[in-house]
Amino acid sequence: MRTALVGAPIDIAALVAEVSAPANGALSLFIGTVRNENDGRTVDGIEYNAYAPMAERELAALAREASERFDTQHIVIEHRTGYLALGEASVAIAVAHPHRVPAMDATRWIIESLKARVPIWKLEHYTDGTRQWVVQGHSAVQGSAKMDHGEDPHA
Amino acid sequence: MRTALVGAPIDIAALVAEVSAPANGALSLFIGTVRNENDGRTVDGIEYNAYAPMAERELAALAREASERFDTQHIVIEHRTGYLALGEASVAIAVAHPHRVPAMDATRWIIESLKARVPIWKLEHYTDGTRQWVVQGHSAVQGSAKMDHGEDPHA
Amino acid sequence: MITLDVLLFASYADAAGAGRVRVAVAEGARVTDVVDAVRTAAPGLALPSRPLVAVNHRYAKGDDPVGAADEIALIPPVAGG
Amino acid sequence: MITLDVLLFASYADAAGAGRVRVAVAEGARVTDVVDAVRTAAPGLALPSRPLVAVNHRYAKGDDPVGAADEIALIPPVAGG
């Protein structure tokens, strides 16, 4: 079991190897990647900003809770920070288990919980040069000021 | 979209790269691996035997159907045949999609459907030297003759 | 009569001691007729009451017709993955 | 009175123009008192009615007590993954 905020590209093959063990018959992996479009706008890249000590604590808590709920120690979660280009992996979750259903259930539970509670934010950079903080998968146009101009003070 | 029965180890990193595309924000991967125990018996390895032309046809049909159900072309399925040692990947399913829920749903649908309908069988080799065909995740002790002695005529 | 080599796999092949069994059925035979002929030709096979059958690499229904040119296989419970 | 540097992130930091805001609250203050003090100190921040607050890297409730040694942060809606 290991969790980390990382500044360099995530090595997927290393994660797969890390959770592998002779008692496991199933390995489930989820990778979040930077895509080229959101809410109809063309995305250039995403800046991931974390409240690092709390995000690390929450990631570790998620892995522990998933380990208890789904009965496996073979869990690795890595989340990138900093600027990511299109196609780069922002998060990777690998879970291995003797059986496939709990492996897949755990992976899904972790990504949903991570999105709900780990203090990480994304500033989308658009091809037109503007930027905007993303709220719950949508850009933060409604309900708060538009942040096109914003510099990220924690980058 | 690609499906294959393969005789050599599955290259997980290559599968991940193959389904990646700029419009995808999520990638879900499932890997089935040979584990060291089944039904309380210690496993040495598993021989995967397929009715190859039909298995290939069924795998391709699964990918096509998943593509329509979950609206993505970014699907790769590989299934090993032959003798696999402990820890080796017997099957790998990679699905990428703009969004995470359909990516994970598609992966799960494919592995469940594959196990239900693709004509592949496994002969478990135990550390005590015996072998047995596996039925639906359990060894075929009940309801049919015990196949400890069996040579696989299609190997 | 037409002659068919019905393919067997995994536990069926082990039980029959071979990867195929030759049977003869009447012209116009259906899948169920082939299954009945296999039961007679290979009694040691101990097939379930309604085994899965594939005709030309597709799962077939009991009343599907079969011809001399068809590839017919009996499919034991699958266990891939 | 105790003085606290409340951490701000993402859209909150942009709206406040800074990554932290200094506030003074009474001894024995609760999380809600800190939030009220931030509203006064940084009116441009336009906080929601009940913003998420972390105390020492854990999500806190409104009536949790705070002290001078605590690390307090306002957490905008998270968007990781």
Summarize the structure in words:
Chain A has 155 residues and is α+β, with helices and mostly antiparallel strands. Chain A has helices at residues 12-19, 52-70, 100-117, and strands at residues 2-6, 26-33, 37-38, 41-50, 75-80, 82-85, 89-97, 120-126, 131-135, 138-139. In chain A, strands 3, 4, 6, 8, 9 and 10 form a six-stranded antiparallel β-sheet that branches. Chain A has a four-stranded mixed β-sheet with strand order 1-5-7-2, with helices on both faces. Chain C has 81 residues and is an alpha+beta fold. Chain C contains two helices and five strands. Chain C has helices at residues 10-16, 31-41, and strands spanning 2-7, 20-25, 52-55, 58-59, 72-75. The longest helix of chain C is centred in the middle third of the chain and has 11 residues, at 31-41. Chain C is globular, with a radius of gyration of 12 Å. The termini of chain C are far apart. The mean pLDDT of chain C is 97. Classes of the chains: A alpha+beta (155), C alpha+beta (81). Strand 2 of chain A pairs antiparallel with strand 2 of chain B, so a sheet runs across the interface.
How many β strands of chain A by DSSP? 10
CATH class of the domain at 2-33 and 53-120 in chain A: Alpha Beta
CATH fold category name of the domain at 2-33 and 53-120 in chain A:
Aldehyde Oxidoreductase, domain 3
How much of the sequence lies in strands of chain C comes to: 25-35%
Give the overall silhouette of chain C.
globular
The CATH architecture of the domain at 2-33 and 53-120 in chain A can be given as Alpha-Beta Complex
Strand order of the largest sheet of chain C: 4-3-5
For CATH, the homologous superfamily of the domain at 2-33 and 53-120 in chain A is named as Molybdopterin biosynthesis MoaE subunit
Rg over CA atoms of chain C: 12 Å
Counting DSSP H or I runs of 4 or more residues, the number of helices of chain A is 3
CATH topology title of chain C:
Ubiquitin-like (UB roll)
